Each structure stands twice: as structure tokens, then as C-alpha cells.
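Exam prep: given the inputs below (a chain plus 3-isopropylmalic acid), describe the expected output before reading on.
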Amino acid sequence: MKATIVCLPGDGIGPEVVRATQSVLEAVADAFGHTFEMEDYPIGGIAIDQFQSPLPDFTLQACQNADAVLLGAVGGPQWDDPDAPLRPEQGLLKIRKELGVYANLRPVKPHPRLLHTSPLKPEKIANVDLIFVRELTSGVYFGQPKRRWMEAGEERAVDTMTYTESEVRRIAHLAFQLARQRRRKVTSIDKANVLETSRLWRKVVTEVAREYPDVTLEHLLVDAAAMYLIQRPSSFDILVTENMFGDILTDEASMLAGSMGNMPSASLGEQQNRHGRPRGLYEPIHGSAPDIAGKGMANPVGTILSAALMLRHSLGLEEEAQTLERAVEETLSLGILTPDLGGSANTEAMTRAIIEQLAPSRSPAWDQAAQTIR
Ligand code: IPM
Ligand code: MG
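Solution:
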């Protein structure tokens, strides 16, 4: 297979984890006889500095022509001024919107070796295996009006939370279809006791559920969901929720897995690539971590596992995806861990170990792939 993968390294540790992932993808391509054309384009703070735009047009165009997009992270203290007209995060929101990737899948499954790195008791999280399905292109992140202005001698601001029936319907279907491939349980999270958007959300999800009588549906209010994620995390299978609730709860859920550094995500929509599959956007859920940027100690696993999701969903390479996921699992089992996981390996050592685990019997091609990141 020949595939074009546009890479958006972004800011902070983004470039480090994307570079690591590119060498892993090259090793996968080598082993399975594929060609992945990978090209970097600017997004975020670095794009503001160089091109006065958090998402330059040529970056957007490249993404729209790609088979899949791999993103590192955006943002950093130098672009954090709340009064700045251009912000790195605008680039991220715009690429999500333009690619129409309304469903953000965030799986959480702690690795047995890393149970102790979670602040929760190991027996609480041992059986956790859940996927958040976060709505990604609507809600309060995008609703209009959204602005700040002066009135009666003081500053005011407004954000607007909006949802349409069809926006809720399509993500509900996706959640139920995913549940059918798993333990057949969907938890829908809202704030229907207060918000009108949530009452619409609950009504539409309940309607969609009728088409999936074999799947159990549970409704939770978002505040209670925050509590149950700690109290009974292994009771969840698929959790579906609106954009901002999903943003908040997935950071909470990442603690079930010990470190945010291990968590991948896949964002999917209706646009298809030239293989007739969704042109997804793949990114780790962690941020740009400016405090450790440039030190070579970033955990590349979240991005590498995002690449595995890309192989599966955008390229249809299931065997390759599983091989890569197994290589990561084995590396973690061997105790080759970056500092955020309690180890002392650097990005390079961890990436090299993953590449070595990819090849049970080493071939010259593998050695060469491993060389490129040494
Ligand atoms: C995430 C991030 C982003 C979001 C930020 C960087 C805009 O927190 O992907 O979870 O809020 O969606
Ligand atoms: Mg977030």
C-alpha cells in the first residue's frame, strides 16, 4: 500500500514525539512492504511565529489531500496571552472542524505493568477497558456568538453551547456501533437537569438506542460521571458525551491509566481518503509539555499508539496495527519506561525498543530502521 500521511509536529514536545512515531511507521512500512509518504507541515505556535497563522492555508490543503493526519501538540507559554488575537489552539480547532472529524475516540486501558503509576488502587483499575467517544466539532467550543466586549463600564464575555439533532444522532450511532464490537454498553453523559442542549442530547441518544436493542444504555449527569469514573471505572465500556464534558472527563480518565503520556486518540468523520476510508486526525491526548520540551525525555507512546489507530481506521491495516500495539505492550512489559512512567529511558531508547519489538526475528531492514533513530 502507498499512503500519504501529513504530519503536524506543532509545539513543545510535539516535534519529538512525532519524529519518534515517524521512525516507527517507517519500520512498519519496511516490514510489511508499504510506502508511507510522510511530510511535515506547520500548525500552532510555530506556525503563528513563521506564517502569522495557527493553521496556514497550505497546511490545511495538504491535510485535505492526505490519507491521514498525525498531530503532535500545540501551545506553549509564549503564546498564552489571553488578549492575543492569534492562539495556537485556534489551529487545532480549525483543523478538526475543516476535516469534519466529529468523533474523537479516546481509549483507556491500563497496562498491567503500570497499575502502580495510577493514583488509584491497582485493584480498582485492573479491569478498566473503556473508550470515550467525545463530540469534537460542535458545542461550546464552536457555538456563536463567542466574544468579549465592553458594556456599562465593564468587560463582558459570552460563549454559546449549541447542538443540532443530527450532530447528536451521528455520534450516538457511532457509539452504539462501537459498543456492538465490545461489551455492548453505552453510557451517555450530559447535564440534562440544567442545560437545554443536554435535554436534546438525551432525547436523541434515547431514540437512537431503540435501533440497538442488544446494547444497554445508561444516562449519567456529568458531575456524577466524574465521581463514578473514580468509584467504578471498570463498569464502563463506551462513554459518549459532548465536546467540553469530553475534554474534561478524558483528562480525568487518563489518570486511570497512570500517565497521560500513553493515551492515543483517533478523530473520525465522514470525509473519505483515497482508500475509501475515513481521513482521520490522530493525536495523543497530552499537551505540548513545554517544561520538558527539547530534553529528549518525552513519552512517545501516546503518539505511537495514535499511529496504530491510524493504520487501523484510515489505512485498513489491522494486522500492522495489532503488531504495533503488541510491540508497545511488550516494551512496557520489559520495563523500558520514560520518566513520566517511573522509568529512566529517554524518547530515543523507548522508540528503539518499540522498533526492536516489532521484529521478532530481526532482518537487515529492521536494523536499518532502528539505525535511523539512533
Ligand atoms: C484536547 C485539548 C484541546 C481541547 C485544547 C488544546 C484546545 O485539551 O485535545 O483535549 O480542549 O480539545
Ligand atoms: Mg483536553
